[in-house]
């Protein structure tokens, strides 16, 4: 008797019984069987295999439909398109082995570099701007785009395999995959040097792998069970290693695993606590530890390749930068001494602490009152007004032997080496900073800053002002200081301050606030400079500074330019880079002309212009398949209503659908719906700028939900039509529904998807359209196509 479990989708795979013997041929028939062997086993041909194996034929046809739209005219345009500017450049940096910084993990970018390396490309072209010619610059764009196309073509193939493994009919599995194959946005992203198709491949393949694992639930701890479980973890690690939104897929699988473990824990299943512990441990290792190891491994490879100094150095701490071959911080830095005049450069905004003989307005526009003191601001350029003489907070003998109280040399005699050691500025030293051009000292006090009322004002006062003296003392506190050493007498010696190679905070001794600045500009009275203020929480990169220049000293003239390179292990680098990735990703809030909100994505209210050619009225414009996206939303809506109806029926003790259909919807249909929601809803709480391409993972899973609804409305016998594998099918498997009307509905859905794809295909392939043809395709006024009025 066939169980409901077998026929409900996500059915388990049966394994051969241990010790089972093959059927024995009766002796009396043996001779006749041997004599007729040739007649019963004619030569096998591919057409014959396909004619007897509809599932395999469907998979091959799906592959053809997936590949052709993605490789058609893939060599055009022969120019840099949209974000190929970034990701092509990053691939070149891998080949140059030059360090770069990006907010995304490295796997997809390393994959893009592999085909370029295989054809002998050396990374000479840096994809600097949209429209640059690939042929003229010798870039292997064709093989790089083809690599992306193969990953993109794999997505509908995987969708077919998922639907087949989940027990859907061949027709529905094929149509679902074809809808994905013929989605304009997915095709477009599969034809360019972009990351999303590679990421989507790993996302969808991890869901496929988990389904294969789940189907072995009645055969736990077998080789195949462990294989598919571990493969799922590996693929999840790869998805996260392409883009951090891969964590959404990780969350989906986490939900499925929690449900699975809750089911296993049921006492009615006779699972012992030790068996449950084994289930839990296997999943924890494979789905938590394995992805973490995979993620770490790709970053280890990333650091191993990018060993030379490059454009990404400046994002990192000096310790990190000095690990890179050729970095100037490891070769050209100067020690800073008391009496030196130095400039302070801000880490985040590259501005300089400056002052001038102008005062803050007594009353600000909001009615608040200032100290009416001398302005201290952050300027974009280093000028004479950016230099400050470093004076010890408490004068000592070695200093007074050579300098007066204002840091001026009292004689021209050379300073002996033993005195130079004492004059070096070090971590945690207390200093006063004398402005070189106005001859006053830096001060912060309990007066509200001009733009940030919660922070304190920075100003300058006369160096002889005794009342303000305590407010002019500042600690120089290093960020990540090295451990103190001991001299010959056992005294602790702190790390010395050097130009560029050390980051530090300027912290008021009396007020315990740190000097910081931000990008917001002062009004006209402040000449558009940035505000300097005292931040109470002395943390964050906006309070970090370096010494940029020592007045009158050149690195080339100094004998003290070499610095000991501190050791920095892999995990220290990894943690620093993760922090920077998260910080800079969160800072992507600057308005962009093509950004959009998550609420607008399903309705496709806004597209994105990727490339234009005004000479021939050609453009590439990101747009989904309007018919397919509308059908997906309709399918998700219908699925939600049906699920609610089933649950409501249970409350009233009646069944809305059969047990088989209900299990099919509540198991694999719900998997697709959860994947759609988990890859879409988190964007609503993100503060960074968002774009419609962030919706692509949900597009794929939305089509699968639609496939679930097509099955619900067109297939009357789930068990009879169910595929159990994407490559093998039973004899006499029915392919199309019995109802001609249902066949017509399925055919109409596929035909309209194809026709809509073709209608908007010029925006995918960049083919010429007349202005009237462009206008006819502008179904929404917010679709800002080019050349509509030419």
Automatic annotation (TrEMBL):
Biological or metabolic pathway of the protein: Protein modification; protein glycosylation
Keywords: Endoplasmic reticulum, Glycosyltransferase, Membrane, Repeat, Transferase, Transmembrane, Transmembrane helix
Statement: the UniProt record of this protein carries the keyword Glycosyltransferase: yes
Segments forming domain MIR: 333-393
Cellular compartment(s): Endoplasmic reticulum membrane
Signal peptide: none
Database matches in SMART domains: MIR
GO CC annotation, single: endoplasmic reticulum membrane
A GO term, aspect molecular function: dolichyl-phosphate-mannose-protein mannosyltransferase activity
EC number: 2.4.1.109
PROSITE patterns named in the record: MIR
Transmembrane segments: 54-75, 139-162, 168-186, 193-214, 234-259, 280-301, 627-648, 669-689, 695-715, 743-765
Catalyzed chemical reaction(s): a di-trans,poly-cis-dolichyl beta-D-mannosyl phosphate + L-threonyl-[protein] = 3-O-(alpha-D-mannosyl)-L-threonyl-[protein] + a di-trans,poly-cis-dolichyl phosphate + H(+); a di-trans,poly-cis-dolichyl beta-D-mannosyl phosphate + L-seryl-[protein] = 3-O-(alpha-D-mannosyl)-L-seryl-[protein] + a di-trans,poly-cis-dolichyl phosphate + H(+)
Stated family: Belongs to the glycosyltransferase 39 family.
Function description: Transfers mannose from Dol-P-mannose to Ser or Thr residues on proteins.
Protein name per its UniProtKB record: Dolichyl-phosphate-mannose--protein mannosyltransferase
